[in-house]
Design brief:
Layout lengths: L2 H4 L5 H6 L21 E6 L3 H13 L2 E6 L4 H6 L6 E6 L7 H10 L4 E6 L4 H7 L3 E4 L4 H12 L29 H14 L5 E4 L6 H11 L8 E4 L8 H6 L16 H4 L4 E5 L6 H13 L1 E2 L8 E2 L3 E6 L3 H6 L5 H7 L2 E4 L10 H13 L8 E2 L1 H9 L5 H15 L4 E2 L5 H10 L9 H9 L15 H15 L4 H8 L3 H11 L6
Parallel strand pairs: 1-2, 1-3, 3-4, 4-5, 6-11, 6-12, 7-8, 8-11, 13-14
Antiparallel strand pairs: 9-10
Helix pairs in contact: 3-7, 8-9, 15-17
Length: 507
């Protein structure tokens, strides 16, 4: 911290003035709160329009919202409080607020500082001490994700902390890096589907690159002239999702003060990308089936129908076919969304791609305003390859971005990733999904599948096949995509065999 900032004195009268009960709070019922509450969110220099949006999103997530002007922020932070989580949101940040960010960080080093700014100032805000940046205008899904990250203090800090806004632009298929067979297969399916009007289902773990692939599909398709509409079903409040997708008329429900055009209607003539489709409530799924079949939407409270012509791409963090079997996802919607389906493998299963992927991501990061070209050394690459990357490609990108942000040299070294080195040394994340050598030796000595009956004759093939599938399900801990891949069959074939042989996926 520069001496000039350390020398800043906060008048006692100013602190006292802002400890008075002069702020407006959004109160949440205690029974609606998760066990780690209360959460206190301080809004600094937030205008009335921003305040309404932030208070609505934050209150639904259980935050108590407090609003001050810039000169009162330090007094509010200095007030005694029993909140277990405290975050601040600075509206419309500019470079003149650098000293304010530094003083707030000095008052509370653990403070989660969220900043609203434009793309050209995002890097400056991060360097000034912001924990996360959100672009103007505020998007509810991004805001909800940023608040969720701020609320989870168990998340790894430092270079592993996620960013809400990413330095990203749409990639062409030729620019997507990956050489493992599973990844190239998924990419080939996506490239072929891009030339059609068919819906596309992309499955994979969070951060595995589903949105980037969706952007590539859209960019390679006939609707690339208009931006793709993105809806994160997991970030929108569940009881607002229907209105968010289909829109509503004025007075359709309490709080509907104006007409709202839904995202499906906005996507007329382009592509809509529905992230985390598994979080869509069942009654909204039913309406989406009708919209796909009729190519029409009707706003809540509306009487007429609006014709739409759009292309649907959806992404799921979970395996939808399993959710269908459990009654948690509509089968008719699944069948309409899955004419072209593909699965992106997690980064831990494509470690050989990390060297080229890291250099590719650094080249893209260098194009972001305020950044510069930077290389990466072999020791840093070796460290990145040993890490397990539970957050997949997104976590790798964010880690490289934060390291490049503070690096003063011409290339990143292993010393620029201290948290990753610590995690790798103590948590063994690189081996999370790979059995140690002793375990593999024990498995090699374990009894195999019985081929013969007591009378010496071979067992029926159906029984042997059932035993092999049960063994694979147990060995790969119920990860059905991995089971199908290791058995050399498609996932749909695997589920058909489970049904024919009467095997539970929990076997």
């Amino acid at each position: 911290m520069p001496q000039a900032l350390n020398a800043v004195k906060i008048p006692a009268g100013l602190k006292a003035a802002f400890t008075k009960p002069r702020y407006s709070f959004v109160h949440i019922k205690r029974d609606d709160m998760p066990p780690d509450f209360p959460r206190s969110l301080l809004l600094i220099d937030v205008d009335q329009a921003q305040h309404r949006l932030i208070a609505s999103v934050a209150a639904r997530a259980g935050w108590q919202v407090q609003s001050v002007r810039g000169e009162g922020a330090e007094g509010a932070l200095a007030s005694p409080r029993d909140a277990t989580i405290f975050a601040a949101f600075l509206g419309d940040w500019n470079s003149g607020d650098t000293n304010l960010l530094a003083r707030l960080r000095d008052l509370n080093p653990d403070l989660q500082l969220l900043v609203c700014t434009d793309g050209t100032q995002s890097v400056d805000a991060l360097r000034a001490g912001a924990s996360d940046v959100l672009a103007r205008p505020l998007i509810p899904e991004r805001l909800a994700a940023a608040l969720g990250t701020a609320a989870d203090r168990r998340k790894t800090k430092g270079e592993l902390r996620p960013l809400a806004e990413k330095p990203s632009k749409a990639l062409a298929f030729s620019e997507i890096v990956g050489s493992t067979p599973e990844f190239r297969t998924a990419l080939a399916i996506a490239a072929k589907a891009a030339r059609t009007r068919l819906p596309v289902l992309i499955e994979g773990e969070r951060g595995s690159g589903k949105e980037s692939l969706a952007q590539a599909i859209h960019a390679a398709g006939p609707r690339s002239g208009r931006p793709m509409i993105v809806v994160d079903c997991g970030s929108v409040i569940p009881n607002l999702l229907e209105s968010w997708l289909f829109g509503h008329e004025k007075g359709a429900f309490p709080g509907a003060f104006d007409r709202f055009i839904g995202r499906l209607e906005n996507a007329d003539g382009t592509t809509i990308f529905l992230k985390r489709i598994e979080d869509l409530p069942l009654h909204v799924q039913a309406r989406l089936v009708d919209a796909i079949d009729t190519r029409e939407v009707r706003r809540l409270g509306g009487r007429g129908f609006k014709s739409i012509d759009l292309r649907i791409i959806v992404a799921a963090d979970k395996i939808l076919s399993l959710l269908v079997e459990r009654g948690q996802f509509r089968e008719d919607l699944y069948l309409r969304l899955a004419p072209a389906s593909l699965t992106l493998p997690p980064l831990r299963e494509r470690r050989g791609d990390i060297p080229l992927l890291a250099r590719h991501l650094l080249a893209r990061i260098a194009e972001y305003p305020g950044m510069r070209p930077i290389g990466i050394t072999d020791d840093a690459i070796s460290l990145l390859m040993r890490f397990g990357w539970p957050g997949n490609v997104r976590q790798l990108r964010d880690s490289l971005f934060r390291a490049a942000l503070v690096c003063e040299g011409t290339a990143l070294t292993a010393a620029d990733f201290p948290k990753i080195a610590l995690e790798t040394a103590h948590n063994k994340r690189a081996d999370d999904y790979h059995a140690p050598a002793r375990k593999m030796a024990a498995l090699a000595r374990a009894p195999g599948i019985t081929l013969y009956q007591a009378d010496g004759h071979l067992r029926p093939l159906e029984q042997i096949e059932a035993d092999v599938i049960r063994l694979a399900i147990g060995h790969y801990q119920g990860r059905m995509t991995e089971v199908a891949r290791r058995l050399g069959i498609g996932r749909s074939t695997l589920y058909r065999k489970l049904a024919e042989l009467g095997i539970s996926d929990a076997a």
